[in-house]
Amino acid sequence: MNSTLFLRPGRLPTNANRIRYRAWSFRRTLIAAPGPRSGPLLSRRADRELPSIDSHRRWIRTLPLFAAAIGVSMLAIFNYQKSSSSVVNSTMYALRTSPKAREFLGDEIYFAQKIPWIGGEINQLHGRIDISFWVKGTRAKGKMRFKSTRENRMGFFRTEDWSLEMEDGTMVRLLNASDGDPFQHSIGTEADQQATSSI
Description:
Layout: H1 15-26, H2 58-83, H3 86-96, H4 99-105, E1 110-111, E2 119-123, E3 128-136, E4 141-149, E5 158-166, E6 171-173, H5 184-198
Antiparallel strand pairs: 1-3, 2-3, 3-4, 4-5, 5-6
């Protein structure tokens, strides 16, 4: 006996149903982005939302601090260069061996601060030296000033002022005309070497 199986025809999906099915099948739920107080992230997820970009320009706030740090660093470098120069070393040696300076300052003459601040200018190439810094001894403390100039490139430096101003305002002239210029050859030699090397 032959039996015939009849299949009921089904309805095929329309184009609209196909689009809805595709949109539903590819839709994903995204995990919210971590907030500032959400704690550490223990796992990485591919379906996590990207955090919102901060619109505030924080670098504008830190730019003045960066410029101030650069300025302070440059001043510290230039001051260290002046404090370690032969001009400062020569004036300190002359100050320690000067009877007049030891009369007012005492023995063991050295910088007043651990990190001395050398004010003024040291420009041996153009013949201009005008510096001042604080010194101290076993008796008192004072501010020493040294000024020397050079008229021409091949000449020697000529000391115009070498003085010591005490804390009470007393001015002590350390340069004695009868003794001559104690810095003429010591400072002029290095200046001539720099001028010769720059030619």
